[in-house]
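Quick one: co-fold with nicotinamide-adenine-dinucleotide.
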Amino acid sequence: MAMIALKCPDINVTVVDMNAGRIAAWNSDKLPIFEPGLDDVVKQARGRNLFFSTDVAGQIKKCDIIFVAVNTPTKTYGVGAGRAADLRYIESVARTIAEHADSGKIIVEKSTIPVKTADAIKAIVASNSKGHKFEVLSNPEFLAEGTAIADLLAPDRVLIGGERTPGGEKAIETLANVYARWVPRERVITTNLWSSELSKLVANAFLAQRISSINSISALCEATGADVDEVANAIGKDSRIGPKFLKASVGFGGSCFQKDILNLTYLCESFGLPEVAAYWTSVVGLNDWQKSRFAARIVKSLFNTVADKKIAVLGFAFKKDTNDTRESAAINVCRDLLSEHAKVCVYDPKVPADEITADVLGKGVENARLSIAKDAYDACAGAHAIAIVTEWDEFKTLDYAKIYAGMPKPAFLFDGRNIVNLAALRQIGFTASGIGKPMV
Ligand SMILES: NC(=O)c1ccc[n+]([C@@H]2O[C@H](COP(=O)([O-])OP(=O)(O)OC[C@H]3O[C@@H](n4cnc5c(N)ncnc54)[C@H](O)[C@@H]3O)[C@@H](O)[C@H]2O)c1
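Sure, here it is.
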């Protein structure tokens, strides 16, 4: 929304959220999300044509287009628990629109939702007794956290799905004209509603599949002496495969991949396609295995016991350049190490200490074995092993000789992101290993 406000000074954008704390943060100097370049965009537009408010009902009355961008987490209860999307926030927004709208609106699904959700929204807003006409569009968001501003400035494509009726076509055109202010027209793709809704889940499933595919090969590389980065480079040069998203790692995290694949598998089963569901379930299963494999390897390397040994965990966010920790691999790694009675000391440049503790242990729970360090050197001091879990750039240039000097020997380093030079670390004296890298 901030990018639309920046690029379309004649359009008034008001972001409403029922979470007053978040709205207050959006109106302050410390935005609730860390995202490179976001501060600048918000500062340029805020107060001009970008506003943040908790007045949901009032803004519904005033506006022409409503983007619904509420959360659609995995359901934790009832039918479909653990896989289906929880659509209660979508439904509540639809009901709020039905209650307060006093003119026709275009409703845009921005959240990631299961295919056919537009039907539910349409049915609910149709209950608006004032007889207004609502058009529902699907306009999934393809930005990636950490590169959101760059992705929004120059998207590979913008996808807009709508009904193939005169009213639907007109609504699609209205929304396409908003993006056309800065996105080349040929990058704005229009489809029917269901293709658009489904494409977002499928895009995330394919991206996650690539990670699980290369991670499966990383295990084979470790067993054979092949180097996964060399394999990725060799296969990525094939233009049919391509070089992107072939970086082996401790596993994918984030609020979207796992949630959306699970949602896709649930949809497949609901539509009587258990084999398709099983195929995609394996992408998540492989990721779970990759995360646990990393922690298990640490324990095994440290002579099968980490009890009372200090392990430094560098990085907690699910990837670099974000403070988002949802489904981060670091959570699993920390929990696995704590269950082996290790003393886990975490450092992340952007994630607050209380959030790390709450993510690993649960809100309000404490465990003397888990501590949070103020910097990477503090985390590594006296540690038996270092585990790099997030690929923050600063971990590439640490003074590893200094760190090595302050560690008991043998000093271990496990690079869960393949970002450091293992040969140089071995030269210093570390017993260093990466993901899918030959052991020395
Ligand atoms: N995070 C990403 O990178 C990303 C990328 C593409 C798509 N998506 C999709 O976008 C959606 C939102 O994701 P997110 O990461 O921003 O989630 P989030 O949980 O950070 O934010 C959702 C916000 O919606 C608010 N909300 C919920 N119900 C509301 C209601 N009835 N009225 C007003 N506000 C309400 C919540 O208070 C919260 O602030 C999800 O469907 C997600 O799958 C996210």
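If it helps, The pocket of nicotinamide-adenine-dinucleotide is lined by residues 17-19, 22, 56, 69-72, 89, 92-93, 111-112, 141, 143, 145, 255-256 (CB under 6 Å).
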